[in-house]
Amino acid sequence: MSAKSTTVRYWLFKSEPKVFGIEHLRRKGVATWDGVRNYQVRNLLRSEVRVGDRALFYHSSTKDVGVAGEMEVVSEAFPDPLQFDPKSDYFDKGSTKAAPRWLAVKMKYLRTFKRLVPLAELRTDQQLKNMRTLVRGNRLSITEVTKSEYEKICLLGNAV
DNA sequence: GCCAACGTTGGC
DNA sequence: GCCAACGTTGGC
């Protein structure tokens, strides 16, 4: 078999750790990244995010905001089950199984950094301060990062 | 809890 | 298709 022809891409996924943090993912090993309810992000999951891509796990809306670790995409996009569950906060009565509106992917835990890389540090680092994730007004819960940005953040996270 | 900034909705 | 009102995100 030939190697995959597509190049690995790098992403940053945001989540509120009170709802689902990297410790939840570590315990599960593989988890469904669900609850995406933004069309731009849905389109990324459908058309851009691929099996084998890497992603930084970013903790948002919490005391210590920043990048907590790494994970890997292990499934193509599939319909987010929560959109069909009337008991879920993510239920969408306008979505049907024939034409699902929202997508999810499965993510695999890779590692938790030795130290959380704080948002403030991303903003001041010369190599990172232009990350799309940090652009003022950005509200996407998934943004692409460059390989060099990704690797720099891993270095910062694994430094003592 | 505040608030800036963006996304979504719906009347027209 | 415009745009005001409302809802959500997310840092602080």
Write a brief caption for the model.
The termini are far apart.
Protein model, in words:
- With 160 residues, this protein is α+β, with helices and mostly antiparallel strands.
- It has a single domain (10-156), classed as Roll (ph1033 like fold), CATH 3.10.590.10.
- It has helices at 17-20, 22-28, 39-47, 119-124, 147-158, and strands spanning 10-15, 30-33, 54-59, 66-73, 78-79, 103-118, 142-145.
- The longest helix has 12 residues, at 147-158.
- The radius of gyration is 16 Å and the shape is globular.
- The N and C termini lie far apart (41 Å).
- The structure holds a DNA duplex (12 and 12 nucleotides).
Helix run count: 5
CATH class: Alpha Beta
CATH architecture: Roll
Query: Helix/strand/pairing class, anyone?
Result: alpha+beta
Task: Give the CATH superfamily.
Answer: ph1033 like domains
Overall, the morphology is: globular
Low-confidence sequence ranges: none
What is the topology?
Elements: E1 10-15, H1 17-20, H2 22-28, E2 30-33, H3 39-47, E3 54-59, E4 66-73, E5 78-79, E6 103-118, H4 119-124, E7 142-145, H5 147-158
The chain binds a DNA duplex (12 and 12 nucleotides) through residues 14, 16, 37-40, 60-61, 65, 119, 136-139, 141.
Characteristics:
7-stranded mixed beta sheet, globular, DNA-binding, alpha+beta
